[in-house]
Amino acid sequence: MASDFNQFQGPGPTGSLQNPSVWIIVIGFLACLELRRMAKKLVFVVGAGGHAKMAIETLASMAEYQIISCMDKHPSSDPILGYPVFPENSQTLAQLLEAKALALVALGDNRLREQVTEKLQTLGFQFATAIAQSAYVSPSAQIGQGSVVMPRAVVGAMARIGQGVILNTSCSVDHDSILGDFVHIAPGCHLAGGVRVDQGAMLGIGTCVIPNRHIGAWSILGANSTVVRDIPAHGTYVGTPARELHKN
Q1: In the sheet where 160-161 sits, what is the strand order?
Q2: Domains with residue ranges and CATH for the chain
Q3: Per-residue pLDDT reduced to its tens digit, 130-175
Q4: Alpha carbon separation from 7 to 12, 29, 114 (Å, rounded)
Q5: Which residues are catalytic?
Q6: What is the pTM of this model?
């Protein structure tokens, strides 16, 4: 009986598990797995205004990111939501690039956001994508790098969102819609299915767009506009239905 029992025992004193060096390797391996699980991507935020505050809080709610600082051309001495604000200069950017930090360009002005993003891309930076916990993004939708999806925003099935897009609080972009780079969809906007919004367009707060409409590049829709016809590029449109106010 004793011999039968012994065959089920672990290795003896000379067995591999009795060797301290083996346990050190095993513990080290498990520690590496835990560190990898806990590892966060470093992010710096470009901007220190109202949109930056919203973007910071969205990033901070995401387990995968660790915000290290903000950056602004004219920084104040006061931190933003507890994060230091550093001046934008080549030395700071070089240090962030060496640290492999991701950038999030949190500037509400579409044209300026495009310019700063292109500059950082030229330097070799990659970009974080911020999605609030209370937002809903369909599993079949695509969100571009550097975009921000604010609280309670909804992105429907097969929608495609470009780079550096702002989907602001409680807006909705329905199925099969396509948004170009650096578009801003303001709070409370609602885009029905199949809408296309070209690069840099700005839809003011509360704008509604019926299905399958096309909004041209760098156009502006005033607050509470209703889009029932296609909107040409480079114009400002207001009202219900939206009518041209002037060329941009």
Answers
A1: 142-143, 160-161, 178-179, 196-197, 214-215
A2: 41-123 (3.40.50.20), 130-241 (2.160.10.10)
A3: 999 999 999 999 999 999 999 999 999 999 999 999 999 999 999 9
A4: 11, 29, 70
A5: 175
A6: 0.83
